[in-house]
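Sequence only, no structure available. Ideas?
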Amino acid sequence: MILKEFKELVVTSRPGQSAGARVNEMRENSVRCLGPHGLHTMVYSEWGDAANPRVLICVHGLTRNGRDFDVLANALASDYRVICPDIVGRGRSDRLFFPDDYGLPTYANDIMTLIARLGVDSVHWLGTSMGGLIGMFLSSLPASPIVRMVLNDVGPVIAMDALQRIGEYLGKAPDFASLDEAEAYVRTVCAPFGSKLSDTQWRFLTVVGTRPKAEGGFEMNYDRALAQPYQKVFLEATEISLWPMYDAIRCPTMVLRGAESDILLRETAVEMTLRGPKATLVEVPDVGHAPMFLDEPQVRAVQDFLLAERG
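Reply:
I predicted one. Tokens follow.
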């Protein structure tokens, strides 16, 4: 299991716990979902007691996958059944035959299928970037299953310059002869994750963000065809504003913003505290887009907010 190779990343889930009590076993499961053009399988990591009715769903960003949350999930597994899906087209989940099916309607439908599989009526939500957009959409709906939410470096207004930056590398990654070569690439395109990440943390992000190729070497762990709908939806737009969606959210919400983020500008984050769910704002210094929950302060901020309702 990858987490064993990164013991320095394991953070405490509760003050005073012993090291032995912190370690939790990750399980891999899957659910079959119906898309616009047929069936596909979505794989997810699961942590904590499978009988725990308190469920936290953690959803990753555009080109990442559910393994990004290994450290966070390990820390929260004593309080939650933590579910970390690989959204279709990423990680261990299927790739879609029709690239135009990669989009919010497919992702939201898959998540609702997953929640039905889990057998719960309500969930807590943590969404990074794209995962936050999925969460905003679902939580804006009447009778939403999301009752508490963390939006990680995303909001109802998305800076166009940042979308152009992402478009410059999306789907264009080369194949890599070695993990070292892959890591050099990851460090470049993911530099906004933070200048203070350790070598071990960068290797972790590389290992979970790439996959071996059958003929040897490695490739990024997402479908390059994701770039096609991205170009149509985002790069051809002149403005991305989702304030009506955000204003419809009623559940307690926290916004975690990288202080150097070019996706979620500070003025947008501040406005999010004044309207809609009137989110709590926490800024992470020395990080852009997006905080990756590989150190204790970031994990602790999520813990404090999600568990606050328990008193």
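Confidence is low (pLDDT under 50) at residues 8-23.
Hope that gets you unstuck.
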